Amino acid sequence: MDNSPRSVTPVGDVGVDPLSQGDLEIDTYQVVRPDGTFDSDRVPDVDDESLRDLYRWMLVQRLYDDRATKLQRRGKLGTVASGRGQEAAIVGSGFSLAKQDWIFPYGREAAALLMHGLSLRDLLLYWRGIEDASRMNGANVFGLAISIGSHIPLATGKAWGMQLADESAIAFANLGDGATSTGAFHEGMNLAGVLEVPAVFFCQNNQYAISLPFDGQTKANTVAQKALAYGIDGIRVDGNDVLAVYNAVSKARERALEGNPVLVEAVTYRRGAHTTSDDPTRYRDDEEVEAWKDRDPLERYRSFLEKTGRWEGIDEEAIREDIDAKFSDAVEAADAFEERDVEEIFDYLYEEMPPELERQLADFEALLEERPELYDHIERRPKG
Ligand SMILES: Cc1ncc(C[n+]2csc(CCOP(=O)(O)OP(=O)(O)O)c2C)c(N)n1
Ligand SMILES: [Mg+2]
Fold first, then answer.
1. Do both 350 and 279 map to the same domain?
2. Where in this chain does the record put each Dehydrogenase E1 component domain (predicted)?
3. Which residue ranges have their beta carbon within 6 Å of ligand 1?
4. What's the pLDDT band for 132 if we cut at 50, 70, 90?
5. Predicted confidence (pLDDT) at residue 375 exceeds the cutoff of 90
6. Catalytic site residue 274?
7. CATH number, domain at 313?
8. Domain that holds residue 62
9. Which helix (H) or strand (E) holds 236?
10. Total Cβ atoms within 10 A of residue 343
């Protein structure tokens, strides 16, 4: 055989017809349109108080974000990742979960975690770097995935475990559009499909991963279509329409419990900065932000409640006062929480510390001896 490089001639029309992006038309499910009109057949069959609670929880999310941001500015929280603009995605999904389900959070979904039983104090402590507080709380909330996408295979694993134990519950992972570009996303989704586990992967496509816009993240038109490659269900939903998200995730949950994992894409927008350490004016223009302001999830849903005669039951001022008081109490409780020893960073990874970690701990302790001012604001473990 001749293995010298050969010239390549165009193959011409030989009947090869590649599948392409245009072949996938994925609808975006909606219940309430941006102008507040709605599809009455799609209004979920829940009582009026629950419909009002959806609004109340969205307000909780918004107020939490405002207060947490101010707290960070006063130096009392490490960083804050706000859910502003994503309230409908956060609350509509959180509201559809049962107590026995497990949430694998990604950071912006404060209201969903609070409604799942996590205390406000523990949430604040997390953002102060005290992660283990949340484990005392007994809520089915896993630690926050700071390493993007790392929780996706864990959610698959938890769902598998619950399936093997014959529990009627799902693992629910919140993730961003950026997380869909990680290897962990692929591994978690693929295994979920193969094992047919009760998991729902909820991607809040807020159009950015820090400064990188969605079309720089993937060549695919949608996140939802990626589900098909894993042989699982995909749903694309208007993430600023709380009823649409509630219906979509409720349906996904039902499917998941039957052994059909689902990837849900909620199309939304991150209205604020990525975190309190980011300046979004450096990479996006005001017109874009203004355009999404017109699609505000709270205003849209308020208009639905007004049109259907349910708004009267909501006392916004009372909710604000209640949240303010609860937030102040939670800050006080967080302040009273025992300071952690900085060496504890080394404690919880292995039952027995491996030599490499021992070496790092020794280096760290030597550094603290040499420059105690680095950590003089933090409690130190007594020697010996
Ligand atoms: C593995 C990993 N790479 C990079 C980062 C730095 N980082 C923090 S948030 C973020 C973007 C996340 O974007 P997305 O998943 O869309 O979530 P969003 O913040 O938009 O809600 C990046 C790259 C990280 N935390 N983990
Ligand atoms: Mg994003």
1. no
2. 55-339
3. 108, 146-148, 176-179, 206, 208-210, 270, 274
4. low
5. no
6. yes
7. 3.40.50.970
8. 25-335
9. strand 233-238
10. 16
